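WARN retry 2 of 3 for item q-0093 after timeout on previous attempt; input resubmitted unchanged.
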Amino acid sequence: MKNLSYAVLATALILVSACFASHAADRQSGVAVARRMEVDVVINNTTANGNSWGGVPGALIVPGTSAMINLPSLAPSAVLCVMTRQKEKSCYGRRFNGDRRVHSPCAHSFDCSWSSIRMPEQPFALLILDEHMTGDKLVDVVLLGDRPLGENNPVRQQLDTAAREAAAELAPTILPWEMSRRQRAFQFFPLQSCLEGCSLRQSKIVIFMDD
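OK item q-0093 returned
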C-alpha cells in the first residue's frame, strides 16, 4: 500500500512538472499565452435619451375601458461581446438547449460581471448589449488598447470599423436618435486606466486582470 502511495505521488509530481515545463517552453518559443480578464459593468438607470431600458414606464389605459395598467421600469439584461480589429467576435453569456443565441447571465439587473474572458491582442473592442426578445439594444462600445491611439490612427480606424459592423449586426436600429448617437466616435481608453474604472456614455466598466 505504501509503495502504491509513493507511485501515485510520483506520477502527480511528473504531471505537474510537465505542465510547468510546457508553459515555460511556450514562453521561450514565443508562443503567446492567452491572458484572461474579468469585466464588471454597471449600466446607467436610463438610456442616453432618458428612457427606461425596458420601455417607457408609466400607466397604460386599456382601450375601450377605464382600466389602467402600470408599466414597470425594467432594468437591462446585459450581454458582453469582444471584437478584434480582424473582425473576430466572441459573445459571453448563457445558452439554453443548444440555442445559438447568447443570453444575459444577469437578467433585469443594472450590474453584471463576466469572468475568465479571453483577452485578445490589443487593441480590441467591448460591446455591451441589452438583450430583448424583439431585438437587442446597444448600450455602449469601448475601444481598449495598451497605449493611446488618436482617432486618425489606422489601427484604431480598423478596429472602429469592425466594432461598428458588429454593432449593426448584433443590435440593428432604425431610431433616428440612436442612429445619430452611433455616428459619434467610439470612446478609446488605455486598458490600464479601466482597472480603476472607465465611465462610458451609458455605463461604467471595471476590468480585473487574471494572474
